Amino acid sequence: MPIIETGAVALLIWAALGYLFGSIPFGVLISNAMGLGNLREIGSGNIGATNVMRTGSKPAALATLVLDGAKGAVAALIARAVAGEDAAQIAGLMALIGHCYPIWLKFNGGKGVATFLGLLLTLSLPVGAACCATWLAFAALKRISSLAALAAAGTSTFWMTVLGYPEGFVMGVTLTVLIFWRHRTNITRLRAGTEPKIGK
Q1: What average pLDDT does the chain have?
Q2: Contact 153, 175 (CB under 8 A)
Q3: Which residue has the higher pLDDT, 43 or 156?
Q4: How confident is residue 1, by pLDDT bands cut at 50, 70 and 90?
């Protein structure tokens, strides 16, 4: 944990701002704007880039990936610039929670992987890069997006330890638990051997 220097009221404000920013459903907005149909009725019904790809529009999926990744990054960057590292972690964590449980979609949002990776890249570039590399390696080897996400999340605290970001360890554990919880149905399908591969 970083040293808590920001006041409790200020941290609550950063938490609220991070949540509201994270809850913007970019996948839904982009799909609607591009006339791709109701994302909730396509594929898994998820609002993230992987499901947007199932609409057949790679530009829409890429835009969703970038914007979802920017949620955690921008929230943390602004909070860090104004208040400090403690506020950055709170704002970033709440941006991820906002993405997973957005108030605008009755608290039924995405899996949070892009937001998770964008946040880590902002808080610690080496850690974020290592987690992205882990995701890419598993995606290339196994061609299963959820497995790659679980591997990236599961190794995040290891990367924090070896790459010199110990103040992020507690938050890393929290992020990992949240990512695994959001992927619980994927984990069931992975165990059953029925999880679809990327592009299918």
Answers
A1: 91
A2: yes
A3: 156
A4: low
Give the model's pLDDT for residue 183.
94
Tell me 7's DSSP state.
Answer: -
Phi, psi of 196 (to 5 degrees): -70, 150
Which residue, among 152, 6, 159, 3, has the nearest Cα to 69 in the 3D structure? 152
Question: Do the beta carbons of residue 184 and residue 195 sit within 8 Å?
Answer: no
Q: Is 177 in contact with 150 (CB distance < 8 Å)?
A: no
Q: Which residues contact 128 (CB under 8 A, 6 or more apart)?
A: 117, 118, 119, 120, 121, 122
Instruction: Write out the E strands in 46-181.
Output: none
Burial status of residue 110 (CB atoms within 10 A of its CB: 0-12, 13-18, 19 or more): buried
Q: Which token pair is 13? A: 């404000």
Q: What angle do CA 7, 98, 189 make, to 5 degrees?
A: 135
Per-position DSSP letters for 32-43, written without gaps between them: HHTT---GGGST
Phi-psi sector, 37: left (phi>0), alpha (psi -120 to 50), beta: left
Find the mean pLDDT for residues 36-42. Answer: 82
